[in-house]
């Protein structure tokens, strides 16, 4: 009986020990799983934070690059605008030169000045003192040029900076082409400015009248002049 009692006690002890060991193992495994889950959660959080920081850094780089590109574009646009202004200026200057040299026809508002020989010539007076001469036409042309005339013509023939005028008796020769009186000098420019310049007190028209030349002055909203003919001038 004593032997059997000892066996029973030993069995109980072993059973309780096994239970304790099993329980302890179960708790340990559970805690290990919790720790593993916590570790994984921390790893994921660290990973996502790192990804977020990388994205923010990349966005910062992209913003910097974008600002640099925008500055480059603004610089190019400014240079292009300056180039366009320069080109437009060259085109305008070329056009002005072509107008002066007569390479292209011209049309615009301006004035018309008609110079005529005197209708009445007193007896025993010198006829040459009552007809239009080369200096009279030069006075009108010079005044018109000073007032900003863009183009000038005499009896429809373009007058240029290298043109020459000669008086041949009762006619005027312009670049070798003869024109009889009356002489019509047309000029394209600001009509008011041209007219005011010619009609100044003691100005060109007053001088011409005092020299027995009949003068008519009119403004015109549209005057047309042809281009220089090939070989002309």
TrEMBL record:
- Domain of life (superkingdom): Bacteria
What Pfam family does this protein match (any one)? DUF881
Show the InterPro entries listed in the entry: DUF881 (IPR010273)
Question: Where are the annotated coiled coils located?
Answer: 52-93
Q: Which UniProt keywords apply?
A: Coiled coil
Q: Does the keyword Protease apply?
A: no
Family as reported in the entry's similarity comment: Belongs to the UPF0749 family.
PANTHER family with a match to the protein in the record: UPF0749 PROTEIN RV1825 (PTHR37313), UPF0749 PROTEIN YLXX (PTHR37313:SF2)
Q: What is this protein called?
A: DUF881 domain-containing protein
